[in-house]
Design goal:
- By secondary structure, this protein is an alpha/beta fold.
- It contains 10 helices and 8 strands.
- It has helices at residues 17-29, 49-59, 73-83, 104-112, 129-145, 162-171, 178-185, 208-222, 225-254, 264-296, and strands spanning 2-10, 34-42, 63-68, 89-92, 117-125, 154-161, 189-196, 303-307.
- Strands 7-5-6-4-1-2-3-8 form an 8-stranded mixed sheet, sandwiched between helices.
- α1 links the parallel β1 and β2.
- It starts with a strand and ends with a strand.
- The relative contact order is 0.14.
Length: 309
Amino acid sequence: MSFLSLITPCYNEEANVAELHARVSAAMARVPDCTYEHIFIDNASTDETVARLKAISAADPRVKIIVNARNFGHIRSPAHALLQTRGEAVISLVADLQDPPEMIPELVAKWREGYKTVLCVKRSSAETPAMFLLRRAYYALVERMAAIRTVQNFTGFGLYDRTVVEAVRQMDDPYPFFRGQIAEIGLSLYKIPYDQPVRTRGITKNNFYTLYDIGMLGITNLSKVPLRLVTALGFVAATLSFLIGLAYLLYKLVFWASFTVGIAPLVIGLFFLGSVQLVSLGIIGEYVGAIHTQVMKRPLVIEKERIGF
């Protein structure tokens, strides 16, 4: 008899948690020889999410709840939930119903075939075409820059064997890029394509900052290419400035009486070099910020309460 853990991060998902629980229960009923726990980790919701989860937990002892003391963000909270599991394998799915629970039996079947990681990879998405194309472009960029082979169009929905979970624990990262960690671990994996449905209730919690945060985290965790590009850009800018300055000097020597440099080239040059410096400082700052986070070594979350454990 296998024992599985399911984790679901929540933030203001009062309209979805009851349906998610019902669909997960129905999906798990189709998995033979298996018991499970379902851990919901709430990121300090301001609506009735926690109250509805408590009602579900009171009726179903398999449901366990972790309530965070505050909103610790979309990266740290799921990572904390992963490390609290006891199952032989862990299935992660979000509360907005865009990760179809009906795929759970297929995930478990592939795990029982021997795969340590079974990932659900988006074949298409009901989100806006522009956003889907932008995500694909980002994944392709990270793939080209990363020193390891990554999984494109993978958002975290999947099944992870206990050996994978323990490997993540050993990394002990206070601000983990989970998709990169899975690629870094490198154990056998199987990819299942699926069509991501549209969110039908509630509003997305992703905004420009959260998307930028996860995007830059992926790049800084997996690649040193941006730092080397900054170095190359500095050499190119210095060489270009030298050649332009030399050209102006020669032109002035040849046409001493008639040639006036003017202020335009000076202003353009200053703006060009200033832009190069700002871009370079921004990229270096991202890596310094990542180092700062690692050095502080703060816990992933602080829990307010636990229910059902």
